[in-house]
Write a structure and sequence with these properties.
heterodimer; A: 113 residues; mainly beta; Immunoglobulin-like; six-stranded mixed β-sheet; five-stranded antiparallel β-sheet; 11 strands; B: 110 residues; four-stranded antiparallel β-sheet; 0% helix
């Protein structure tokens, strides 16, 4: 059972466009949602995160929109740059004690110059 | 600043051989430590977590074991590798909510 789903599987945008990456979840106990950026051969890097008490979180060109009722969130990357080309993972954590993150399958983003 | 170091960077091992991967965290006392596994092109799956020295909890059974001999060290091991153990092993740490990953170890079992 996949508790965190991401779409699309891959996304191609032109430089300067806004890339929209989607994520949905099933477990209503999830209360923290980080997004990670991973380049080939490297570990994932924490990009931006949001708690379920908020509906929006912004950090520079990266914005998370969160809809608790629909159990959906999205990552918007404005003014996309070729250097943003990477795999993006949405993750979710519940209120349990082990800080376990459940990851989605990832979205591969390609930004064409 | 906190730093996380994983070793080795990559390994090629034979089926049935033993394995030991390591991880060291510097600059953070008493961190929570984690091992994750990532298949090539796949998602990340948590394997183990530890909140203190000598205490390790298993999340997924994959014929692997983990130990935390020191506050800043986390070890992943097995006595007999399987082909299915191939992948990318990531050590991670957290102190509160945010989880930070190391650069990973690429394991190829042949």
């Amino acid at each position: 059972q996949q508790q965190v789903r991401q779409s699309p599987q891959s996304l191609t945008v032109w430089e300067g466009e806004t890339a929209i990456l989607n994520c949905s979840y099933e477990d209503s106990t999830f209360n923290y949602f980080p997004w990670y950026q991973q380049f080939p051969g490297e570990g994932p890097a924490l990009l931006i995160s949001i708690r379920s008490v908020s509906d929006k979180k912004e950090d520079g060109r990266f914005t998370i929109f969160f809809n608790k009722r629909e159990k959906k969130l999205s990552l918007h990357i404005t003014d996309s740059q070729p250097g943003d080309s990477a795999t993006y993972f949405c993750a979710a954590r519940d209120a349990g004690g082990n800080n376990k993150l459940t990851f989605g399958q990832g979205t591969v983003l390609s930004v064409i110059p | 600043a906190q730093t996380i170091h994983q070793w080795p960077v990559a390994e090629i091992k034979a089926v049935g051989s033993p394995l030991s991967l390591g991880c060291t965290i510097k600059g953070k006392s008493s961190p929570n430590l984690y091992w994750y596994w990532q298949a090539t092109g796949g998602t990340l799956q948590q394997l183990f977590y530890s909140i203190t020295v000598g205490q390790v909890e298993s999340v997924v059974q994959l014929n692997l074991s983990a130990s935390r001999p020191k506050d800043d060290q986390f070890i992943l091991s097995t006595e007999k590798l399987l082909l299915s153990h191939s992948g990318f092993y990531l050590c991670a740490w957290s102190h509160d909510t945010e989880v930070f990953f190391g650069k990973g170890t690429r394991l190829t079992v042949v």
